[in-house]
Amino acid sequence: MIPAAPAIIAGAVVGLGATIAIAGATRTRPDLTDLLRRMDARRLEHAGPAAVVSAGSVLDRLGARLIGQFGEGVIRLPRRDLALLGRTPAQHVGQKIGFALLGLLFPALVPAVITLAGGHLSFTVPALLSIGLAALAWLVPDLNVREEAAAARQGFRHGVASFLELVCLERAADAGPSEALHKAAAIGEGWVFSQLRAALASAELSGVPPWEALRQLSDELGVPELSAPADIIRVAGEEGASVYTTLQAQASGLRGALLTDAQTAANVASEKMIIPVTALVLLMSLYIGYPAIARIMAA
């Protein structure tokens, strides 16, 4: 009933305030995964200076607070996808909170609008609908990040193919394995080569071999196409083997795989257009032929 709506809303607000107060008063338990990651000194991202984290928006601060309270293991953040897109976990969780709040509040406006219009609507149905929409909206940012990360990985594969071609040219010019990687990364432009340059620079500062930096970058971003060239360069750096032909074959194979993926995506897009085009042709045929058919039937 509508008169019970203010009482339910007031109770929910009081319960939420009590939960926040208790959570703020209790001691925060750090996530074990974060502690182990920060204690691992061999990770390349800890070799450089610590980045200054801005305060961000209110939702970002809420996201950081939620991560600090419950840990990333409970929230299950897509860390690889976020690292590939250049987003922080706090930003992602803040976006999830924003979507959940929109899903929670939108159905609650329906009873108010109906009441102002002079009608009556039970509060139970909008309340259940709000909870369901909030749960679904909480998952929307995860789906968006997954789609954006898939597109970004495809672009990263194209950058890796160009990077391998440049490394082959540097090796053909008698450059050493480490020198070839650095020169090839310095030539290219775009966010892919920026990631490669940052990984190689961190490896140089920490004394880690550059091929190990490429392998770690491949694992962190979820791009296995960068791991195989790293192993090839490692063989050249540690054993002095000639890997020009192997690198060239690797680059050619990656180009072929990317071309196959592009053709598959084009075929899928073409198949999706069959139904709309067929429906449009049928509607146009019906629109043009109906007057003539109606006259024939009436004669």
Beta-strand proportion: under 5%
Global mean pLDDT: 76
Helix segment tally: 14
For the sheet with most strands, the description reads: none
Number of strands: 0
SSE topology sketch:
Elements: H1 4-25, H2 32-39, H3 58-70, H4 72-75, H5 79-85, H6 89-105, H7 109-116, H8 124-172, H9 177-187, H10 191-206, H11 210-221, H12 227-239, H13 244-272, H14 274-298
Helix pairs in contact: 3-6, 5-8, 6-8, 8-9, 8-13, 9-10, 10-11, 11-12
Structure in words:
- With 299 residues, the protein is an all-alpha fold.
- It has two domains: 4-150, no CATH class; 153-270.
- It is built from 14 helices and no strands.
- Helix 5 (79-85) packs across helix 8 (124-172) and helix 8 (124-172) packs antiparallel against helix 13 (244-272).
- The longest helix is centred in the middle third of the chain and has 49 residues, at 124-172.
- The radius of gyration is 28 Å and the shape is flat.
Summarize the entry for a quick read.
This protein is an all-alpha fold and 299 residues long. The protein has helices at 4-25, 32-39, 58-70, 72-75, 79-85, 89-105, 109-116, 124-172, 177-187, 191-206, 210-221, 227-239, 244-272, 274-298.
Primary descriptors:
single chain, mainly alpha, 14 helices, 78% helix
